[in-house]
C-alpha cells in the first residue's frame, strides 16, 4: 500500500477522534459507542463502494481502508501496552489498596467464574467443544469500563466507585488475557477437554514471571531517569519505551504474561518515579501518557470496528441465538458476583460495602470493547485454530461486543437515571440552596466594587443591582426555609469542605516543591481518607482518619521489627525521615485551614459548626505537634535542618517567580533569563536532596536530655550511649508480659506506655523508666506493659543498670519514688543508701563507678577487668 495513502488514512483517523468526542457529548452517548459506530459505518461504506456499480472513483479509498495493514499483533504489541500503562500512571494505588477486596473479586474471581459459566453454558447449548467455548468465554470476560466511568464522573459519583471500576478494568484485562493465552494453547494443540491441573501449574509462572520482568525493568528505568534531572524529554522518552520493552521481554523471552509485565511496570513507576524525578517532570509525563492513551484507545476502537462487518458477514439466526445465550450467561455470572459474593464478603467484614444502586450500574455498565475485538481477531487470524472455531469465536465475540455497546451502552444513562444516581442527595440539594445564597452575596460585593472602578452609569448599575437583589433575596429566603440540613449534617459537610481545602493546599505545596511528589501522593491519600471518612461517619470518621494519618503505617511497623530484631536500620531511617517531612508539611497545612474555616465555612454553616471545626483542627494540630516533639527528642537538630531546607526551597521558588515576572515585563532578555534559570536549577537540585538521617548515632544526645542522667559527665554519657539499645514500639505493642522477670530496664525517650499490675494501671511518659523494680527484687510480678502511643525506648541490661544505679543518686531517687508509690520494698536501694551515708560521713570506702570494668561493657560481654 502506498505510504501516502497510509498517512492519509491515519490523518482521517485523527479527524474521527476529534469529531467523536463532541458528538458523543451532544448525543449523550458513551464515547466508545460513538467510536464503534463510526468504525462500523466506515467499514460498511467501504464494502458498499467496492461492490456497487454506481461509481468506481472511491474504490482505491475503499480498498485502502479494508486492506489497511494492521493485524491483531499490532493491537496487542502497540495499543494495548499504551492503554494499560497509562491507567496505572493515573491511579492512586494507596487509595485503591483500601478497596483491594472488591477490585480483586471483580477483576479475578469474576473473570474465572464468568469464563466457566459462559463456557459450560455455551457448550451445553451449542454442542461445540468445551475448550473452544471456554476460549470464547475468556475473550468476552474482559470489560471496558471507560463508558461507565465517564458517565459516573459526569454525575459526580463518589471517587471510590470510579476507583473500583478502574482497578477492575486494569486487573480484569490482565487476568482475562493471561487466561486467554492458556486456553488458546489448548485450542491450537487440539485438546478438546483441557486438564485444569496443568493450566493451574502454568498460571503462576505467567503471573509472577510477568510481574518480575515489569518490576525489574521499571526500577532500572527509574534509576536511569534519576540522573537526567534537567532533561524532561529524555525522562518522558524512557517512560514511553518501558511498557513495550516489558511486554516484549515477558512474552518473547520468558514466555510469561506481557500484560502482567506492563501492569507491574506501571505500578512500579507510579510508586518509585515521583521520588526520583521532579514534580514537574512527573506531571508532564502523565499528561503525555494521557494523550497517548486517548489516541491509542480511539484507534483501537475504530480500527477494530472496521473489521466488524467482515467478521459478521456469514452470521445466521442460530448465531444470533447463541449471541443472546452468551449475553445472558455473562450477565448472570456477573450478577452472581455483584449481588451474591460481594454482599457476603461485606457481611463477614472482608470487604467494604458497595451500595446496591452502584452494583446495578456496574452490572449494566460491563460493556465489552476493543480488547474483546482484538482477542477475537487474534483467533480468526491463527491458521492453527480450526476453521469452524475461528468462525464461531469471530461471530459470537463480535456480536456480543455489539450487543453491549449498542443495547447496554445506549441505555446506560437511562439506567443510571432510573437508579437516581444522577441526582443530588437531599442533603446536597439543601446545601446547594445555602451555597448559592452565600455565593450571590459575595458576587454582589464584587460587582458593586467593579461598577465603581469602571465608572458605569449609575442608572444602569442601579437597575442591574435591583434585578440581582431580587434573585439574591429569593435565594436567601429559600435557604432560610430549608429544614433538611441538620447540625450533624452541617458538621459532616463542613468537614468534607475542610478536607477538600486541605487537598488544594497540599497541591499548592507540591507545585512549590515544598515536599516531594512521592510524599505528596501519600499526604493526598490521607486527605482522601479524611473526605470519605467524614462522608461516611461524620466527625468520628474524621477523627479516626486523622489519627491514622499521624500514626504508623504497615511499612513503618515492618521497618521497626527489622530494626528491633535484626538491627537493620536503613528502612527505618528512610521511613523516619519521610515521617519527619510529612508531619512538618501537615503542621504547615493545618495552620492555613483555620483561615479557611472563618472565610468560607462560617458563612455557609454558621458559627457553631465553625467553632467545632476549629476544635477538631486544634486536636489534629496537637497530635501532629506531639508526634514531631517525639521525633525532635529522638533526633535533635534534624527537624531544624528540614525546616531550614523548607525555607531555602521557598526562597528559591520566590526567586524563580521574580525572574519570570522580570522577563514578562521586558526588563531582562531571554538569554539572561535562561542563564538565571540554569543557575537556579542547579541550586534547586541540591535542595531536592533531603539530608540523611542516622537513627543509630543519636543515643548520646537522647541520653543527655534525660533528667535521670543529669549527674553523669560527658565521658560516662558516651559510654552509656554505647550500651543503650534503641527499641521502637508501635501503639498497642506488648513490651512486658505477665509473670516475666525482666532482665532489661527501659527508659522512655518518647511516647507513652501503660503499666498494669494487680488491677491498677499507671501511665508513664517521656523521661520515665520501667522494669527496674522486678529486676531489683528478682521476682516475677503480675505486670504487663503496653505502648499506648508510638514510642522510642532505650534498653539497658541488668549488669549495666546496677552499675549506673550505684553511680547516679538521681536514678536511685527515681527508683525509690516509684517503689514507694507501688508499696514495694527494694533492699538493694537500702544498701546503696547506707553506702551513701557512710561515704558522706567521711569514712574511706571504695567508690563503685561505671569505669570499674570497661572491657566488660562491650557488646559481647567478654573481657578482662580493668581496675582503677
UniProtKB/TrEMBL annotation:
UniProt feature, compositional bias: Basic and acidic residues: 852-868
Record has Transmembrane as a keyword: yes
A single BP term in Gene Ontology: sodium ion import across plasma membrane
Pfam families, per the entry: cNMP_binding (PF00027), Na_H_Exchanger (PF00999)
SUPFAM superfamilies from the UniProt entry: cAMP-binding domain-like
TM helices/strands, residue ranges: 6-24, 31-50, 70-89, 101-122, 128-152, 173-191, 203-224, 256-277, 289-308, 320-348, 360-380, 392-416
InterPro entries: Cation/H_exchanger_CPA1, Cation/H_exchanger_TM, cNMP-bd_dom, cNMP-bd_dom_sf, RmlC-like_jellyroll
An example molecular function term from Gene Ontology annotations: sodium:proton antiporter activity
Keywords carried by this UniProt record: Cell membrane, Ion transport, Membrane, Sodium, Sodium transport, Transmembrane, Transmembrane helix, Transport
Top-level lineage group: Bacteria
A GO cellular component annotation in the UniProt record: plasma membrane
Disordered as annotated region, ranges: 835-868
Coiled coil: none
PROSITE patterns: CNMP_BINDING_3 (PS50042)
Main location: membrane
Cellular compartment(s): Cell membrane
Membrane topology according to the record: Multi-pass membrane protein
Residues annotated as domain Cyclic nucleotide-binding: 708-822
Name of this protein: Monovalent cation:H+ antiporter, CPA1 family
Organism: Roseivivax halotolerans
Amino acid at each position: 500500500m502506498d505510504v501516502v495513502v497510509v498517512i492519509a488514512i491515519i490523518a482521517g483517523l485523527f479527524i474521527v477522534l476529534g469529531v467523536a468526542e463532541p458528538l458523543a457529548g451532544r448525543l449523550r452517548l458513551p464515547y466508545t459507542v460513538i467510536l464503534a459506530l463510526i468504525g462500523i459505518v466506515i467499514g460498511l461504506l467501504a464494502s458498499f463502494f467496492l461492490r456497487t456499480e454506481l461509481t468506481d472513483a472511491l474504490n482505491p479509498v475503499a480498498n485502502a481502508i479494508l486492506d489497511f495493514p494492521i493485524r491483531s499483533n499490532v493491537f496487542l504489541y502497540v495499543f494495548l501496552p499504551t492503554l494499560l500503562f497509562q491507567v496505572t500512571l493515573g491511579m492512586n494505588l494507596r487509595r485503591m489498596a483500601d478497596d483491594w477486596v472488591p477490585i480483586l473479586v471483580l477483576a479475578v474471581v469474576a473473570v474465572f467464574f464468568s469464563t466457566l459459566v459462559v463456557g459450560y453454558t455455551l457448550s451445553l447449548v451449542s454442542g461445540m467443544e468445551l475448550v473452544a467455548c471456554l476460549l470464547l468465554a475468556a475473550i468476552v470476560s474482559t470489560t471496558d469500563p471507560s463508558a461507565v466511568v465517564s458517565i459516573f464522573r459526569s454525575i459526580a459519583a463518589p471517587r471510590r466507585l470510579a476507583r473500583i471500576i478502574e482497578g477492575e478494568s486494569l486487573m480484569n484485562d490482565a487476568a482475562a488475557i493471561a487466561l486467554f493465552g492458556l486456553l488458546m494453547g489448548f485450542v491450537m494443540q487440539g485438546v478438546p477437554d483441557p486438564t485444569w491441573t496443568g493450566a493451574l501449574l502454568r498460571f503462576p509462572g505467567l503471573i509472577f514471571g510477568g510481574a518480575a520482568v515489569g518490576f525489574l525493568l521499571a526500577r532500572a528505568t527509574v534509576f536511569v531517569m534519576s540522573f537526567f534531572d534537567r532533561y524532561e524529554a529524555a525522562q518522558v522518552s524512557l517512560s514511553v519505551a518501558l511498557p513495550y520493552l516489558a511486554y516484549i521481554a515477558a512474552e518473547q523471552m520468558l514466555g510469561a504474561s506481557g500484560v502482567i509485565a506492563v501492569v507491574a511496570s506501571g505500578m512500579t513507576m507510579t510508586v518509585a518515579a515521583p521520588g526520583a524525578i521532579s514534580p514537574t517532570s512527573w506531571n508532564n509525563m502523565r499528561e503525555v501518557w494521557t494523550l497517548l492513551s486517548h489516541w491509542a484507545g480511539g484507534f483501537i476502537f475504530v480500527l477494530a470496528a472496521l473489521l466488524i462487518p467482515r467478521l459478521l458477514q456469514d452470521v445466521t439466526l442460530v448465531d444470533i441465538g447463541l449471541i443472546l445465550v452468551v449475553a445472558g450467561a455473562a450477565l448472570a455470572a456477573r450478577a452472581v458476583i455483584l449481588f451474591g459474593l460481594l454482599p457476603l464478603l461485606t457481611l463477614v467484614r472482608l470487604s467494604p460495602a458497595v451500595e446496591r444502586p452502584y452494583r446495578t450500574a456496574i452490572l449494566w455498565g460491563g460493556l465489552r470493547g476493543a480488547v474483546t475485538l482484538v482477542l477475537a481477531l487474534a483467533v480468526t487470524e491463527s491458521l492453527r485454530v480450526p476453521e469452524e472455531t475461528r468462525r464461531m469465536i469471530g461471530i459470537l465475540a463480535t456480536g456480543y461486543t455489539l450487543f453491549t455497546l449498542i443495547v447496554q451502552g445506549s441505555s446506560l444513562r437511562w439506567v443510571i437515571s432510573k437508579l437516581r444516581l444522577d441526582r443530588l442527595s437531599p442533603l446536597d440539594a439543601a446545601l446547594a440552596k445555602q451555597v448559592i445564597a452565600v455565593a450571590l452575596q459575595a458576587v454582589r460585593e464584587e460587582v458593586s466594587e467593579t461598577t465603581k472602578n469602571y465608572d458605569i452609569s449609575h442608572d444602569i448599575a442601579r437597575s442591574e443591582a435591583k434585578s440581582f437583589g431580587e434573585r439574591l433575596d429569593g435565594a436567601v429566603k429559600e435557604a432560610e426555609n430549608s429544614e433538611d440540613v441538620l447540625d450533624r449534617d452541617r458538621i459532616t459537610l463542613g468537614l468534607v469542605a475542610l478536607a477538600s481545602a486541605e487537598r488544594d493546599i497540599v497541591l499548592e505545596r507540591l507545585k512549590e516543591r515544598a515536599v516531594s511528589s512521592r510524599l505528596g501522593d501519600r499526604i493526598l491519600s490521607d486527605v482522601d481518607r479524611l473526605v470519605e471518612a467524614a462522608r461516611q461517619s461524620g466527625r468520628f470518621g474524621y477523627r479516626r482518619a486523622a489519627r491514622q494519618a499521624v500514626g504508623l503505617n504497615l511499612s513503618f511497623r515492618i521497618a521497626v521489627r527489622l530494626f528491633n530484631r535484626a538491627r537493620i536500620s536503613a528502612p527505618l531511617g528512610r521511613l523516619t525521615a519521610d515521617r519527619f517531612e510529612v508531619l512538618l508539611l501537615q503542621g504547615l497545612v493545618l495552620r492555613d485551614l483555620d483561615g479557611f474555616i472563618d472565610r468560607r465555612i462560617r458563612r455557609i454553616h454558621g458559627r457553631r459548626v465553625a467553632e467545632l471545626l476549629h476544635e477538631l483542627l486544634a486536636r489534629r494540630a496537637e497530635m501532629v505537634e506531639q508526634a514531631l516533639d517525639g521525633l525532635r527528642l529522638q533526633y535533635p537538630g534534624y527537624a531544624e535542618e528540614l525546616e531550614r531546607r523548607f525555607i531555602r526551597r521557598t526562597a528559591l521558588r520566590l526567586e524563580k517567580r521574580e525572574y519570570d515576572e522580570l522577563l514578562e515585563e521586558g526588563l531582562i532578555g531571554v538569554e539572561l533569563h535562561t542563564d538565571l534559570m540554569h543557575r537556579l536549577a542547579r541550586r534547586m537540585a541540591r535542595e531536592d536532596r533531603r539530608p540523611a538521617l542516622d537513627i543509630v548515632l543519636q543515643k548520646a544526645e537522647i541520653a543527655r536530655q534525660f533528667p535521670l542522667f543529669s549527674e553523669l559527665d560527658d565521658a560516662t554519657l558516651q559510654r552509656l550511649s554505647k550500651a543503650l539499645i534503641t527499641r521502637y514500639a508501635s501503639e498497642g505493642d506488648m513490651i512486658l508480659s505477665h509473670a516475666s522477670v525482666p532482665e532489661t530496664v527501659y527508659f522512655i525517650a518518647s511516647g507513652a506506655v501503660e503499666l498494669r499490675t494487680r488491677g491498677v494501671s499507671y501511665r508513664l511518659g517521656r523521661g520515665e523508666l520501667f522494669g527496674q523494680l522486678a529486676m531489683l527484687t528478682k521476682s516475677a510480678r503480675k505486670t504487663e506493659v503496653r505502648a499506648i502511643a508510638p514510642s522510642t525506648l532505650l534498653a539497658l541490661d541488668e549488669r549495666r543498670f546496677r552499675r549506673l544505679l550505684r553511680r547516679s543518686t538521681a536514678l536511685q531517687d527515681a527508683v525509690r519514688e516509684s517503689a514507694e508509690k507501688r508499696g514495694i520494698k527494694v533492699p538493694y536501694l537500702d544498701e546503696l543508701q547506707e553506702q551513701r551515708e557512710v561515704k558522706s560521713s567521711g569514712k574511706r570506702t571504695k567508690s563503685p563507678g561505671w569505669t570499674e570494668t570497661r572491657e566488660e561493657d562491650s557488646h559481647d560481654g567478654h573481657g578482662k577487668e580493668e581496675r582503677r
